Amino acid sequence: MIVQKYKDMLQGKSVIRQLSEFATARGAEIGYENVFDYSLGNPSVPAPKEFTDTMIRLLQERDPMELHGYSQSLGIPAVREKIAESLNKRFGMQYTGNHIFMTTGAAGAIAHAVRCVSQPGDEILTFAPYFPEYGPYINLTGAQLKVVPADTDNFQINLEAFDQMLTEKVAAVLINTPNNPSGTAYSTDTVRRLAQIMTEKSLKYGHDIFLISDEPYREIVFAGVDAPYPSRFYPNTLSCYSFSKSLSLPGERIGYVAVNPECRDAELISAMCSQISRGTGHNCPPSIIQLAVAEVLELTSDLSVYETNMNLLYKELTALGFECVKPGGTFYMFPKALEKDAVMFSEKAKKYDLILVPSDSFGVEGYFRIAYCIGTEKVERSLDAFRRFVRNEYK
After folding, report:
1. Which CATH number goes with the domain that contains 90?
2. For the segment 162-180, what is each residue's pLDDT rounded down to a tens digit?
3. What band does 84 get if pLDDT is binned at 50, 70 and 90?
4. Which one of 119, 187, 263, 387 has the minimum C-beta count within 10 Å?
């Protein structure tokens, strides 16, 4: 007999994916260049030339068995050492290769981190607005995701609600900064206060509460924005990183868990991840991709287009009357819809070939997400569609 819960999940298909499929179908009718598809967070800039050159060189010069064979369970030791050295240099940490576990992107990193520090029945807190896939990421482990209501004034953490919800049942707190969908980067003050509350509650309850920091947008931070490295503020932190956005490599599925060296049982945790892999079917990411990213750790794609797109959209939308917290990073914007029903708002936008994601699945009602990882020329052309949409539907 097939498992009912996974069968039931077929009825809860991602709204983002549904809208992306609609945009593709509409593009087949009128030309995709005429569809302003702001649905999917897929990087729109190419990987750095240095990454491509590295891949070519590896294929030409290295032993095929080294490139295409299995790596060790934890990942290639030399790669893990290079990542540790890079993090130490950038953030003043004390990682060694023993604190790094290579994964298939940030999703794979979170899958391992959650299983390291929680058991079925435990609660894990996250903060609205949040990435909808956190639901299955957490709940299918047997733990239970609990969502702290949003502070819609600035999309920093609602610290009062967090303090109340951080009960003895909570094993871990999952943050995402810079944040998908709001684009907000948690400030130093926010992260410091978060750490203070977690430290106090850990002492009160007599058990560790871990911080799982989901960081795929770590490198996409706009000029002058305060975006601290959370592990510097809280010892029991597991950083979950992906190269998908920084190097524009989402299809390569490469990332890592970095266990804070000050974390209790720090060197055990990465080793535990290799045992978790035995139960999840994860058996380390491709060797050649591990070797290639290790050669370009200090590089990113040209991420400047995202700030350019953000400024264009923010200026136009606020001029049209939208309320919006200005993003501090990522390639997402989270304006307030012009009516309470964000789903209806997004449906109306389709008539103008604007594909906007309603906020309900992100844990907040009445907003919509724009994924502006598209070409600037297309962003500029979309502005007239926004003007017509607002004028015809809401004036």
Report:
1. 3.40.640.10
2. 999 999 999 999 999 999 9
3. very high
4. 119
